[in-house]
Write a structure and sequence with these properties.
Order of helices and strands: EHEEHEHEHHEEHHEEHHEEHHHH
Helix content: 40-55%
Distance between the termini: 32 Å
Radius of gyration: 19 Å
């Protein structure tokens, strides 16, 4: 059974104002005391916290670990008068100067990229899936890259930014696209081609180091895994778990294609970027280019989900994950992604976006 790990990034919001606050320097040590040092890290912004799961194999293990980490981080945030909020961007924004963490790496980013670093306190969900080696990972990414727009549409959870409805389902992905190395991975011939390209990006100055190759899906820079980085952080643990298991199944399908010698569709990067923009704009509504196939013909999102299901269902069933993922996909088709949930909450409550923050905030056990 392939291993899976989950990394989630969260906004720290003040309990009274619900705006983002710069308290990660206090919250991270408190969370580490509860959860263990490797499982909680600071992020670029001082208004963020990231949790890092242990290595999991079963769906039950994934959900238990995600719940444990969320609960511990939320309790640590509460100790410092904060809410732990799983939204792709800060719903009500923040006051004061851009809260970049005072660490050597982030200072180097600020020097090199200037104002582009401001406002990058955005929150993703990264899923790692174990693979045999770098060569297999690189070739599997070629099969995975065309599915990234659909995964973004399914997980979009950032319609509001600085107290304003952006009109997008995933504003996080728009903000993140400012980085020169963000976006879909190129079609990679083999592991040597991948390494050459990463080296060139670093040498050119577009990337500070290999870890800054921010492709939507990539071979991990430091682990024997494929890392899917396309998703917004999602509203709850069950959704995060279902998504992680879906990614594992999709990686399983891609590895199967590699081992059987099935060629991957060489979809041009501009079409992938356009499809990801459309997914960020509208979420799981309407149509998307079918970038998993060479012709990229427009296809209804529901039909794309059916095409995805054909490929992942055998891998989900093998590990007992099919019901959990099927229920989530059906929910998204009926009710929309996290962005639709945020808008429904805002419409129902007089307090508007304050209610959105409260609805998202992880409960303290």
């Amino acid at each position: 059974m392939p291993t899976v790990g989950v990394e989630e990034e969260f906004v720290l919001a003040d309990r009274r104002t619900r705006s983002a606050v710069c308290r990660s320097l206090s919250v991270v040590p408190a969370a580490r005391a509860r959860l263990g040092g490797p499982h909680v890290t600071p992020e670029l912004s001082q208004s963020q916290v990231e949790t890092v799961s242990g290595v999991c194999r079963t769906g039950l293990e994934v959900e238990a670990e995600v719940r444990r980490l969320r609960a511990g981080a939320a309790a640590a945030a509460a100790e410092h008068d904060c809410l732990l909020v799983p939204s792709g961007v800060a719903v009500l924004g923040r006051s004061g100067p851009p809260p970049v963490l005072d660490q050597a790496r982030y200072r180097a980013l600020a020097r090199r990229f200037g104002p582009a670093i401001h406002g990058q306190g955005v929150n993703s969900c990264h899923v790692h899936v174990g693979v045999a080696d770098r060569e297999e990972a690189v070739r599997a990414v070629n099969h995975l890259r065309g599915w990234m727009p659909l995964l973004l549409a399914l997980t979009a959870n950032s319609p509001y930014s600085d107290g304003v409805d952006t009109g997008y389902a995933s504003w996080r992905s728009v903000v993140w696209s400012r980085w020169p190395t963000a976006g879909p991975p190129p079609f990679l011939r083999d592991a040597a081609h991948y390494q050459w390209l990463v080296d060139q990006l670093v040498a050119s100055g577009a990337a500070l180091d290999p870890a800054m190759v921010y492709w939507h899906v990539r071979p991990s820079a430091h682990l024997p895994t494929i890392e899917a980085r396309i998703a917004d952080v999602m509203p709850d643990a069950r959704t995060t778990t279902a998504y992680a298991l879906l990614v594992r199944a999709l990686v399983g399908h891609a590895v199967q294609m590699v081992r059987s010698g099935e060629p991957a569709p060489d979809v041009p990067d501009p079409l992938l970027r356009a499809a990801c923009w459309q997914a960020a704009r509208h979420g799981p509504v309407g149509t998307l280019p079918a970038t998993h196939a060479s012709d990229c013909a427009p296809m209804a999102v529901g039909r794309l989900i059916e095409e995805l299901w054909k490929r992942v269902e055998p891998h989900l069933s093998r590990h007992g994950d099919d019901r959990r993922v099927s229920d989530w996909l059906s929910h998204v088709q009926l009710n929309g992604s996290g962005s639709a949930r945020q808008r429904r909450v805002a419409e129902r409550h007089e307090s508007g976006l304050r209610a959105v923050v409260d609805d998202l905030a992880v409960e303290v056990p």
